[in-house]
Amino acid sequence: MKDDPKAVQALEALSKQMATVHREVNAIIFGQDQVIEEALVSILSGGHVLLIGLPGLGKTRLVETLGTVLGLDERRVQFTPDLMPGDIIGSEILDEDDNGKRHFRFVKGPTFCQLLMADEINRASPRTQSALLQAMQEKRVSVAGHYHDLPQPFHVLATQNPLEQEGTYPLPEAQLDRFFMEINVQYPERDAERAILMTTTGNDNKIPKRICSSAELLQAQSLLRDIPVGESVVEAILTLVREGRPETSTLNDVQKHVAWGPGPRASQALMSGVRARCVLHNRLCPSIDDVIALASPILRHRMALNFAARAEGVSLDTIIEHLITRTLNG
């Protein structure tokens, strides 16, 4: 790509556009710069996001802002225990035309959009969760034996509230793997919270502007796939992922505390993610720093601790930090 002036020019233009997107979102969502960057990396990579955070930290506002700034058709579904699969993917109804002839007509559900916010996804039943996760994976839905393609691009940003877990249905590990990233939304810093107070409680609320279109986003996702990844970065990704598996790891804490590690989908996510992050940082090729920055949100939901780790109070974040330090920094 470095030898192709047109491709380089296109990447530079994309970097400038994404910098503008980042600034526009940052002007609405205060104190969550890393969350915004990780969400943009996921969307540029064509993936879905699981947002973990307490109530009131701006998760819903983030999704709405991203939809506006990226020019995507955005919808929101509040997941509840009584929500049925047909409520989100759509269903067939018996219709009658002017001649009295009856036929089935498919009525699209809220899944037929480009950016879907699945609010508190763990409150829905496993059956409803599976319907959404199948749509995420296949980019289409199946109703009454007929397939219906979803709009492109199609991204799901799902949220989970770590409080009030009674009456919830945790996502199975195999389904968690379908999310590109798990992003932790933390409390903002003091200065950021001051900015929130000053801007959101008056009459001068900033309204986000559209920076790009869905067609431009699809073009950007295609362009990113052509970015070359150096051999050292590929080896770093392979080493990191394989050392996270207790069966193949040479690290004692992984062998002792990890029940199961990340699969090949984690390697694929890292390969796509480092390409997107290098563009966001106005570079033409990924580096090992990109792997280090994306390791935690990409691996966090693809690994599980065993009983020994829980008994000893070992956290998954600590394991991943050790994994990064001993495989990529050392």
UniProtKB/TrEMBL annotation:
The keyword Nucleotide-binding applies. The keyword Nucleotide-binding applies. Residues 45-189 form the AAA+ ATPase domain. It holds the Pfam family AAA_3. SUPFAM superfamilies: P-loop containing nucleoside triphosphate hydrolases. GO terms for molecular function: ATP binding; ATP hydrolysis activity. It comes from the Bacteria. Keywords: ATP-binding, Nucleotide-binding. InterPro entries: AAA+_ATPase, ATPase_AAA-3, CbbQ/NirQ/NorQ/GpvN, ChlI/MoxR_AAA_lid, P-loop_NTPase. Gene3D superfamilies: Magnesium chelatase subunit I, C-Terminal domain, P-loop containing nucleotide triphosphate hydrolases. Belongs to the MoxR family. This is ATPase. The lineage of its organism: Bacteria, Pseudomonadati, Pseudomonadota, Alphaproteobacteria, Rhodospirillales.
